[in-house]
Amino acid sequence: MLQGLAASGLGQATGFTDIPWVWSQFAERLHVHVWPGTFNVRLVDATMQTAWEVLREQPGIPIEPASGACAARCFPVVVNERIRGAIVLPHIEGYPPDQIEIVAAESIRADLGLLDGDPVTIRVINDE
């Protein structure tokens, strides 16, 4: 279980989630037809950051790029015990260690009525 605060992102994930090979892999591997973009959560508590570091070391579900694109690993989750989705951990240099990005089939922010700074609970699930 991870807890953090809803946060605005840079607006770059919409382009990533709309790439055909990315969309296809989310559908095949995570069984999610993703809503464009991601929902961002910042982990402000040291205990939660440590828990996230432990999870980041797990293999997760790979999202494998077409040539030259960004790879990622995913972890199935439920947000606020209501919306099923997946954490997307991109393999990029300098990715913020306190940031979590989540994809889902719907707009998490809109459907849960979340504003920046609102508390968010993320329960990691095992889909095996």
Summarize the structure in words.
The protein has helices at residues 13-17, 20-30, 46-56, 108-112; strands at 2-7, 39-42, 61-63, 72-79, 83-90, 99-104, 119-124. By secondary structure, it is α+β, with helices and mostly antiparallel strands. The protein has one domain: Riboflavin kinase-like (Elongation Factor Tu (Ef-tu), domain 3). A 6-stranded antiparallel β-barrel has the order 1-2-6-5-4-7. A hairpin with a 3-residue loop joins strand 4 (72-79) and strand 5. The protein is globular, with a radius of gyration of 13 Å. The model has no long low-confidence stretch (mean pLDDT 87).
Secondary structure elements and pairings:
Elements: E1 2-7, H1 13-17, H2 20-30, E2 39-42, H3 46-56, E3 61-63, E4 72-79, E5 83-90, E6 99-104, H4 108-112, E7 119-124
Antiparallel strand pairs: 1-2, 1-7, 2-6, 3-4, 4-5, 4-7, 5-6
Topology as H/E string? Answer: EHHEHEEEEHE
> CATH H-level name... which superfamily?
Riboflavin kinase-like
What's the CATH architecture name? Beta Barrel
Low-pLDDT stretches are none
Strand coverage percent: 25-35%
Report, as a whole number of angstroms, the end-to-end distance. Answer: 18 Å
